[in-house]
Amino acid sequence: MTELIYYKDPYVKTFEARVVKVLPEESAIVLDRTAFYPESGGQPYDTGRIVWEGGEAKVVNVQFKGDEVYHYLEGALPPEGSIIKGEIDWDRRYKLMRSHTLAHLLMAAVNEKFREKVPVVGSGLGLEESRMDFKAKIKKDDLKEIDDIIRKWVEEGREVKIHLFEDPEEAKKLLDSYGIQGGELTEEHLQKRPIRIIEIVGVNADPCGGTHLKNTKEVGEFKLVKRESKGKGVTRIRFKVL
């Protein structure tokens, strides 16, 4: 099992780890711990580099394989058992962190606008643009109100907290305390320990394994680009950080 450093602290930019597996046929390695984010939950993988005594390589892809994290490298592979230093491409990661926290604010703002829990049926984060699909008919005129709600929360500088629960009932208690702004635990969430909840204080709480900001002020400038009707009562909102 690979220890996920970013689970507790997504601001870790460099770290040391030990190589526990080398897979030459895949140009990949497994580390005992990592701060690199593996692609999941609609959030792209991190890139960067690793350095070891006598060599270095680019990290070009990161993926979960069961409870291990595979780091796909461009260049040489470090020896099994060696100690490496990992360096995250921070500009790329931080932009994705801003986008991910903005996505949670967008989800909450749509709930606020319609005063009910609006199902999210699809999402994807990107460096240039992100999207979120809602099971609701959202009109072009609604975007201004949704935008205003988000901007208010960004300007207020709401704290963003990471909660790690071993007891599902404690996680559920936090989610339920937010009413329509509380996410739901799926069977997949219940099978993992710890259960990770991202809380934007006074706004919402949602199960999430992604990387987030410490404060909504860090979202900075953003734009709700446009809305698109996807049919069957689904509306896609495209958004980006600037």
Automatic annotation (TrEMBL):
Q: Which residues form the Alanyl-transfer RNA synthetases family profile domain?
A: 1-242
Instruction: Name the coenzymes or cofactors required.
Output: Zn(2+)
The record's keywords, sorted A to Z, are: Aminoacyl-tRNA synthetase, Cytoplasm, Ligase, Metal-binding, Zinc
Query: Which Gene3D superfamilies does the record match to this protein?
Result: 2.40.30.130, Threonyl-trna Synthetase, Chain A, domain 2
What SMART domains does UniProt report for this protein, alphabetically? tRNA_SAD (SM00863)
* A Gene Ontology molecular function term of the record: metal ion binding
List where in the cell it is found: Cytoplasm
Q: Which GO terms describe its biological process?
A: alanyl-tRNA aminoacylation
Protein's name according to its UniProt entry: Threonyl/alanyl tRNA synthetase SAD
